[in-house]
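Tip: read the tokens left to right.
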């Protein structure tokens, strides 16, 4: 590549960065000072065969199926062979292949194949492509009834902090990971999406990862690239059709026979009368709390936040004003958010006051991104805020039965998972005072 072309590309990157800063006004240009950042890790494709499957991850589709997604460098069949033992891949499924362009970048071939029906709480082995790849992967399906264990981590990115978080999550023996937005921190540099896919593959290829979008997934550049969420929607396809949603940015699913999980989009339409609002309203009405006692919601921008970071943003304040009543009336049990790079747990709350029939709000945007921690909190601490700490880490939610769950937060400042906060939760569906 000539020097002139290199300079042009460098100028383009600078322009893109400025566009991102303007697009996310308040995200980069915020009033608090972040600590020094750790460098972004770039994970190359390490297989001798450049067309071998990579960036493998799985997600739940319905209650007895899994979507397996992966990327190859050149066209190849979207086929999965699978079975209950490494040598007996008697079953097979085929799917779809797609790709996308982003400025000068052209993605590899993105394959999506749904396999099943599958037995619950069972290990399956699978191979990808046709002819199948030599590598044998394995996954474990979630249980069909409680108990179930979720790992929860937001704002992951791909730094040394991220590596620690992923190592700790891997040791937690979780059934499913929930991620409330900001995955790769690619910020328009598309090969960072590829790097991220390789970084998380060891975990994401074995357990379902259910994700929603954050501000770093928007990747819209005025005039130059007007579409939002191009890479996110292409690479991380979620089962939105299963929940009658018309967008990959918000959807819901049932798991373990007792948990209804709702993923909302902080960076798409959410006002009263919008598509997302109407979908959420209808989705909540369908939940039978006798059969599905737990309702969990994930968003990116937190509705409750006593950190100085990200105060006064419409994605938090306006979305809360539009949707908080819906969640309260439906007796949602807990709301997880990201965005703020710190941890905070609130009491049950509604309209800024403690309310025994409101959801517990937990901010867990501390997975390990390149921007560093949000270390400054508002003083004095609000009474509704029960625990807060600016450390990287992850959480686990052990749902033992139809009434009790244990929430635990583990910090990893010293690259060790240290239990720092925990709380027992009881579902609102078991609280007679909250019956409508």
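Filled-in amino acids:
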């Amino acid at each position: 590549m000539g020097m002139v072309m290199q300079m042009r590309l460098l100028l383009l990157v600078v322009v893109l960065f400025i566009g991102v800063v303007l697009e996310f006004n308040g995200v980069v240009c915020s009033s608090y000072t972040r600590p020094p950042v750790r460098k972004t890790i770039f994970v190359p494709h390490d297989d001798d065969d450049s067309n071998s499957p990579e960036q493998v991850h799985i997600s739940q589709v319905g209650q007895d199926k899994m979507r397996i997604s992966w990327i190859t460098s050149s066209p190849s069949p979207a086929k999965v062979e699978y079975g209950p033992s490494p040598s007996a891949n008697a079953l097979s499924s085929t799917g779809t292949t797609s790709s996308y362009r982003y400025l000068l970048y052209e993605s590899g071939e993105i394959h999506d194949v749904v396999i099943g029906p599958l037995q619950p709480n069972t290990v399956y082995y699978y191979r990808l492509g046709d002819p199948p790849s030599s590598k044998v992967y394995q996954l474990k399906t979630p249980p069909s009834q409680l108990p179930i264990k979720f790992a929860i981590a937001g704002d992951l990115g791909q730094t040394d902090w991220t590596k620690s978080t992923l190592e700790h999550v891997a040791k937690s023996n979780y059934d499913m990971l929930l991620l409330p937005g900001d995955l790769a921190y690619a910020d328009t540099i598309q090969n960072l999406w590829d790097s991220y896919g390789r970084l998380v593959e060891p975990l994401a290829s074995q357990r379902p990862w259910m994700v929603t979008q954050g501000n770093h997934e928007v990747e819209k550049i005025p005039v130059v690239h007007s579409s939002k969420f191009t890479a996110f929607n292409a690479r991380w396809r979620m089962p939105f059709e299963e929940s009658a949603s018309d967008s990959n940015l918000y959807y819901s699913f049932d798991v373990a026979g007792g948990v209804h999980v709702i993923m909302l989009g902080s960076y798409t339409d959410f006002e009263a009368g919008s598509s997302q609002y109407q979908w959420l309203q209808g989705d909540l009405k369908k939940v039978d709390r006798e059969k599905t006692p737990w309702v969990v919601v994930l968003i990116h921008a937190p509705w409750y936040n006593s950190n100085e970071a990200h105060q006064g943003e419409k994605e938090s304040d306006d979305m809360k004003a539009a949707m908080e009543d819906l969640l309260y009336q439906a007796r949602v049990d807990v709301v997880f958010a990201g965005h703020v790079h710190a941890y905070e747990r609130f009491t049950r709350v509604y309209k800024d006051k403690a309310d025994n029939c409101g959801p517990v709000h937990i901010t867990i945007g501390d997975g390990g991104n390149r921007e560093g921690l949000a270390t400054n909190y508002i003083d004095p601490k609000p009474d509704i805020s029960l625990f807060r700490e600016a450390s990287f880490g992850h959480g686990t939610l052990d749902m033992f039965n139809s009434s009790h769950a244990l929430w635990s937060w583990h910090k990893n400042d010293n690259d060790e998972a240290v239990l720092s906060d925990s709380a027992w939760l009881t579902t609102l569906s078991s609280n007679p005072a909250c019956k409508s």
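The helical segments are 3-23, 160-170, 191-204, 230-235, 275-286, 314-329. The first strand starts at residue 54 and ends at 61.
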